[in-house]
Write a sequence for this structure.
């Protein structure tokens, strides 16, 4: 109970207030994905005519992919906020108070979930305005957004844990940029896996980013195969749980290192 | 053990080695068998240059870090066995601020209280009271990042007082503050001890420890080199200081070289254009000292024979001047 209360205190008392005072954070993170959406949308407009591609228009295909990409880009930076907290003493203040380490992780993940929901909704809106089709309706979009939250949480846990272990901005920037782009390209985010070399398709099967963008794309279709969506979502939930647990345990390693 | 049970803080034989990360190298010994006790309701000052082990000690006492060997208790609770319980009775201010910049001063305090499960009117009353005591009532609704250094430091201390801790740890709370801000902060801290709070403070300012601390521990390279009240420490030093002011810093350096040759001088330090020399008896040593300087053709502006200061105490026990030690640590 205590940990839940503390999560609420940190989430509302700190993160939501910070977000409210700096809403630009949400939009700055959106600039790049929007450019990708518009640029790739125009560049590969005719890709969807290739036999075997499947979906109607490329923008319809691309939008769920960019939603997931935005989610992992944004959340891969959350560890930065821990590093700032280390540098200016905020983390020490939390750690010397009787605050549950789980509450620190949970509050941060709750904040990440909120920003991901807003960002995914905006990307979906822009996709829709530029011609994307979501025959699955509202239910499909809600599932797509939920999937984007799951992959964001898994990534945020990884980023937070990594920040606590390395304590260095440079290390986090390096890890984030090396990990995120390949993960995105080794999935069907931009191109149907039927059209890519078979080794990429093989790798993608083990790539959480691929699970997320596949599940998201299936969910917004006219008659989704919910079984597939559900199992991908289950894997993602497990991944999020594992990284959240690891991030919480990383506080111990952090304390041993200081 | 009886006197230790009544102590607010007990540290026994603390040792801590930081691994350097390089294979085969021994690492840095931050603490080397440090022991001390602090009586409840008093200010205890840990004095020493950078790298002496002050911050490491505070980190161990506040549950942030663990020693490689030794025992610690705070408010009668074993810190290593029950860190969670210790956290609820202490307040800790680290060298860095600790306030969330985008929250107002008031919001920082409210969040802290919320984490301890204090709520509603009780929380509001405590926060309002603390903001007033620390002179932050007017700035309460401004974001902490707009505060001056002195205001921020007061906010840091106020924040860790919301749950009324029995023991307060302040790691260099006054570094970087102007004299007025330092005096203001100390006025509040003095009131807190009068109300029963125990305060352990680390500081670079010898004068501050001299003036406010009931007991002072001088530590160097992770070891206690002297402990006592300021008067005890000074009285423990036999002899006097001869303080010489020269024309220039360069002159002071040369004067020190001359003084090394003077038999009566047991130790000396330079700070700017001032040289302090330790001698057994100021009156008797003075002619020899002045004679030496005269022979070296050094222009002396003023000469004072003084009773020992804390800096002399430090020099005596560690073989280095406090300021020199700071310089070495920084290099």
């Amino acid at each position: 109970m205590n940990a839940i209360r503390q999560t609420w205190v940190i989430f509302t008392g700190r993160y939501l207030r910070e977000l409210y005072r700096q809403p630009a954070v949400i939009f700055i993170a959106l600039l790049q994905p929007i450019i990708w959406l518009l640029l790739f949308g125009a560049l590969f407009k005719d890709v969807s005519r290739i036999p075997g591609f499947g979906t109607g228009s490329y923008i319809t295909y691309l939008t769920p992919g960019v939603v997931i990409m935005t989610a992992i880009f944004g959340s891969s930076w959350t560890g930065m906020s821990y590093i700032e907290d280390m540098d200016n003493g905020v983390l020490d203040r939390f750690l010397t108070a009787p605050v549950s380490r789980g509450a620190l992780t949970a509050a941060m993940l709750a904040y990440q979930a909120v920003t991901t929901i807003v960002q995914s909704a905006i990307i979906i809106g822009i996709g829709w305005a530029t011609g994307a089709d979501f025959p699955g309706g509202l239910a499909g979009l809600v599932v797509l957004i939920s999937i984007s939250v799951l992959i964001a949480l898994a990534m945020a846990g990884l980023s937070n844990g990594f920040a606590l272990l390395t304590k260095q901005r440079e290390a986090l920037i390096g890890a984030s940029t090396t990990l995120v782009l390949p993960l995105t390209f080794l999935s069907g985010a931009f191109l149907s896996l039927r059209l890519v070399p078979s080794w990429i398709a093989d790798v993608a099967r083990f790539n959480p980013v691929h699970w997320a963008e596949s599940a998201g794309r299936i969910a917004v279709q006219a008659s989704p195969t919910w079984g597939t969506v559900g199992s991908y979502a289950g894997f993602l939930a497990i991944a999020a749980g594992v990284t959240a647990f690891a991030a919480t345990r990383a506080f111990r390693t952090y304390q041993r290192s200081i | 053990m009886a006197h230790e049970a009544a102590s607010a803080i007990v540290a026994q034989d603390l040792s801590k080695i930081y691994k350097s990360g390089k294979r085969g190298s021994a690492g840095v010994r931050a603490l080397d068998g440090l022991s001390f006790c602090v009586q409840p309701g008093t200010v205890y000052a840990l004095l020493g240059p950078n790298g002496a082990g002050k911050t490491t000690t505070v980190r161990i006492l506040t549950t942030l870090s663990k020693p490689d060997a030794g025992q610690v208790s705070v408010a009668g609770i074993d810190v290593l066995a029950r860190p969670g319980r210790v956290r609820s009775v202490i307040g800790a201010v680290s060298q860095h601020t600790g306030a969330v910049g985008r929250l107002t001063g008031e919001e920082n305090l409210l969040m802290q209280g919320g984490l301890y499960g204090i709520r509603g009117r009780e929380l509001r009353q405590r926060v309002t009271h603390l903001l007033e005591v620390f002179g932050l009532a007017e700035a309460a609704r401004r974001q902490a990042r707009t505060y001056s250094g002195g205001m921020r430091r007061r906010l840091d201390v106020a924040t860790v007082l919301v749950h009324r801790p029995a023991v307060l740890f302040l790691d260099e709370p006054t570094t970087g503050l102007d004299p007025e801000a330092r005096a203001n902060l100390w006025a509040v801290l003095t009131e807190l001890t009068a109300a029963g709070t125990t305060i352990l403070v680390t500081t670079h300012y010898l004068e501050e420890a001299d003036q406010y601390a009931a007991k002072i521990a001088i530590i160097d390279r992770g070891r206690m080199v002297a402990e006592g009240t300021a008067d005890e420490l000074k009285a423990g030093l036999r002899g006097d200081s001869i303080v010489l002011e020269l024309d220039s810093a360069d002159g002071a350096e040369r004067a020190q070289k001359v003084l090394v040759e003077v038999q009566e001088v047991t130790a000396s330090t330079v700070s700017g254009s001032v040289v302090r020399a330790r001698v057994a008896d100021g009156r008797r040593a003075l002619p020899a000292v002045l004679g030496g300087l005269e022979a070296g053709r050094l222009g002396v502006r003023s000469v004072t024979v003084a009773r020992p200061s804390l800096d002399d105490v430090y020099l005596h026990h560690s073989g280095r001047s406090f300021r020199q030690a700071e310089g070495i640590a920084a290099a």
About this structure: Chain B has 13 helices and 14 strands. The CA atoms of residues 162 and 310 of chain B lie 34 Å apart. Chain B has a mean pLDDT of 87.
